[in-house]
Amino acid sequence: METKKEFFLECYKLGIIKFGRFTLKSGIESPFYVDLRPLASDPKILKLLANYLLDMLPLDNFDLICGVPYAALPMATAMSLESYLPLIIKRKEAKEYGTKKILEGIYTPGQNCLLVEDVVTSGTSLLETIPEIENEGIIVSDIVVVLDRQQGGKELLESKGFRVHTLFTISDVCTMLKDEGHLTDDEVGRINDFLAGNVVKFEEEKRLSYEQKLEICDHSVAQKLLEIAIEKKSNLIVSADVTSTQELLTLAEKVGPHIVALKTHMDIILDFDSDATILPLKDLATKYNFLLMEDRKFADIGNTQELQFSYGLYKISNWADLVTAQVIAGYESLDCFRNVGVVAILGMSSKGTLTNTNYREEATKIALSHPNVFGGVSQNKIPNELLLFTPGINVAEAGDGKGQQYNTPEHAFNELETDFIIVGRGIYKSFDAEKSALSYKIAGWNAYEGSL
Ligand code: 5BU
């Protein structure tokens, strides 16, 4: 590695500096985050770093070398090995028993010690460390620093009479990374704002629109749902939890014009008959352009799910466009849902559900990786690659006395960035289901537009 710049770019590859939005210990938001500890895990880099640091100053001036714990300890050790300057170690806290020593190693009062620090920010922590070393009779005149965050630390230390030698400054780093295309003008602008002491304005990340989701969701059922949503200006799915074919068809006829999908629990229909129930339902779905979502919540091993999906009374695979499935049985259990889209149950709306953060994270990993899955049901945000379906929506009730918990469309769009709201009793139990569907459709669409 010939130049200092090439050396820095090698260091950068180890992930020592990240750009984005970080909240510092002080509560201040910073556009970058530095952690030089990974440098010690690459012996070649650590050795080169030690030599770059040693090259900055005349070594004859020093009798000892000491790193400020912890990040600079391996750096100081490597510098000692390269220069034969003896190493001393400064404890973070004095030993509580025995010698109560703060410095470990062999030294004598009056010796001059070179101090090594990874990053200097305000300089205050070095100003606390130096007197602890000086109290042992050691002289500190020079400090070598790998990265100066340019927040006044160097100047403060110099004003107290110390010589500070820095290998890189954050400005150097920005210039090098910008030259190499790793940083945009906007990011450099934010870093400069930050260094000038101004409050940094971060762009709020916006939710994706249905048009943007169309570009990233490649499952055909996801595409169809998004196209219907855009065309009908609706994100409403009505949950048709009625118990007869007549009620189901009447409801579908009323709400059909306003929905993207009709969600069913076909096993609660008392007079289910594939000709009398499914054929007219499919006609209505075609007439009003909505999809059929069977909320079967499969939760068994793959072989059983395959049978439940295609056999028995309901033969779901013959008519459903999308189905819900638990992912509790693991990745392969979802392989059987070949000709439909799967919406995975990631989190539930009911009180006391076991779908805690850990479960949701694991379930989301399966959902993201399985090609049959294009969405998830949840009461929390999920990754953009999956469409989010949120049940438990009702503008008039907070619950149903049986564990269901309700939220508003505004909550679902603003807080969860949902894609589709699912409304059952709020519509089919209302006096006028068509009117209610229309008002939930408008509320859902307004909430979606408001969240953009
Ligand atoms: P409601 O009448 O709007 O409460 O009906 C909600 C529907 O959504 C109902 O069919 C449930 O089976 C379904 N649901 C739910 O409410 N909560 C969940 O977490 C899941 C599904 Br998953």
CATH T-level topology of the largest domain: TIM Barrel
Q: From the 3D coordinates, which CATH architecture of the largest domain would you assign?
A: Alpha-Beta Barrel
The ligands found in this model are: 5-bromo-uridine-5'-monophosphate
What is the structural class?
Answer: alpha/beta
Describe the structure.
InterPro entries: Aldolase_TIM (IPR013785), OMPdecase (IPR014732), OMPdeCOase_dom (IPR001754), OPRT (IPR023031), Or_phspho_trans_dom (IPR004467), PRTase-like (IPR029057), PRTase_dom (IPR000836), RibuloseP-bd_barrel (IPR011060). This is Orotate phosphoribosyltransferase. Its cofactor is Mg(2+). Orotate binds at residues 121, 149. The chain has two domains: 4-195, 3-Layer(aba) Sandwich (Rossmann fold); 210-451, TIM Barrel (Alpha-Beta Barrel), CATH 3.20.20. The protein is 37% helix and 19% strand. It is built from 16 helices and 16 strands. The chain has helices at residues 4-12, 43-54, 73-83, 124-134, 153-159, 170-179, 185-195, 210-216, 220-232, 245-255, 274-288, 302-310, 357-369, 409-414, 425-428, 433-451, and strands at 17-23, 29-34, 64-67, 87-90, 103-104, 112-120, 139-148, 163-169, 236-240, 261-264, 291-298, 322-325, 341-345, 373-377, 387-390, 420-423. Strands 9-10-11-12-13-14-15-16 form an eight-stranded parallel barrel, surrounded by six helices. A six-stranded mixed sheet has the order 5-4-3-6-7-8, sandwiched between helices. Helix 8 runs antiparallel to helix 9. The longest helix is centred in the C-terminal third of the chain and has 19 residues, at 433-451. The two termini are 48 Å apart. 5-bromo-uridine-5'-monophosphate is lined by residues 239, 241, 265, 295, 345, 348-349, 377, 391-392, 394, 404, 422-426. 5-bromo-uridine-5'-monophosphate (5BU) binds at residues 239, 241, 265, 295, 345, 348-349, 377, 391-392, 394, 404, 422-426.
